[in-house]
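Continuing from the previous page...

OK, I double-checked the sequence for Transmembrane protein against my notes and this is the correct one:
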Amino acid sequence: MAPADTDPPKVPSFSERYYGTHPFIRVALRWLLILGSTTVAFWPSLVSLAYTTRHGGVGGYVWVVPIAAMLVAIGVARRNRDELPIHDRQTDIIVGIMGLVLALLVKGVLLARFDLYFHLLRLDLVAMWLFVLSSSIVLFGLRPVTRFGWVWYLLLMVFPLPYYLMVIVFGGGNFAAGAATMAIASTATAIAVGRTHRRGLLGLLASLAVGLAVLAVMYTFFPDAPLLVYQQVPAYTSIIVVGLAMYLRARRGTPKRMLDRKVEPLAAKQVWSAVPLVIAVAVALAVVHLPPQADSTVISRAAPGELTFGQPVVAPAGWQTTGRINYRQVDRFYGTDAVLVRQAMTADVGDPRFDKFSRPRTVMVDNIVSNRPFSFEVYPGRMVYGLTDSRFSVTRTVDLGYGVKGQLLSVVDDNLLITWNSLRFAWGSSSLSQRITVFAVDNHDQNAPFPTPTGTLMSTLRTMFTLLFRGNAVLDENAPSYKDADLLTEFGRELVAAQFGALGSSQ
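Thanks. Re-ran it with the corrected sequence; updated structure tokens here:
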């Protein structure tokens, strides 16, 4: 008897094998796709953030946010899932596409409008947040993402402007930076343990208490610890200690197992159509370049000698200091002990090249020594001088000798009704640097008005927000007048030579 014909076993397709795997594996694969695409799309941003951290920038706090968010996500994931087991893939795709397009607009358009304030705003990190959020929506679904809504809110704290404002209000030093980071840590703890409003408030207060106590111990016994240590150690300590304590308290009398929750099935299926979308947007984002400010530096070279806070510069030969004022409020922006020293320097004799009546010219020389040099990149000088009604030209680079490169700028001041030129340069190291700015105005009278540093914190903050709202409209002087370019260039070279000569240096 002939054997009965049998059909060959059906080989499952790749899609069937994928959907037949454990939900944990599918979650991991989707997150690998999101993280890999994010790395491709925002690799220059990550490199720039590492540059900021390596050079002691306050923006290094950003690394605290994703790690805190992962700890918070563990706490949220332990709660019983309460969203309805339904999903609408059309809604997921529509909302996800809207978010991905917005990420492209932020990085491609908005970043260019505010490129002068790149390090202050870091809009590229906002675009990164939008990309990760939108990719999660199209790959996991809107409902699961909404379940972790407070975690996404925490991740939005990568937008640094609120953090910078807190650091300024708290005083501007390392302790202030650590205290501002505690706002992130305490919020993270409240979300992680907040199954009820009472537990959330208790976690918030306990985290603040633990973190500030650690911060006080560090400030007392390790005052010279690096800025990054002040930002990270109290934050992580408070989250881990308070979170673990409240977990053990809630689980007393029961088995202590961290992974005792069932991995629920994924609601969003049919995700293969979303994979090319995420990859295509990641490639488009990778094509958009960051502005030059992302990896620029105002520091030309090493300083000619030891830098001292509040120390005036040496007047060059043929010039004498005729006035001096110290502005100490800049320490909130440029670090503890920073002082803006303003010196009026007047030429001994007039020069017909710089004044048709051969009157001796007067220039203003402002210098700031900072133990946080990267803050020169974060807070442009125009914020210090309240120049909200001024029109700026693009900068011109000039060689001042000794390896020093200066930036020449022309400004029309509609408030003072004058045109003035400035020359700026800086030298030092990543731990201590000096920025020097020289001003010359087209009014050559002895009582001519010069740009003056703002005197209070609130006036400086008002200037900051005004300039931010204007964006790059502040650079709208299309026909700059460099009337004093020769004066500033010659004076700048003599000033640089005087600083090296005063120390007997010929470097």
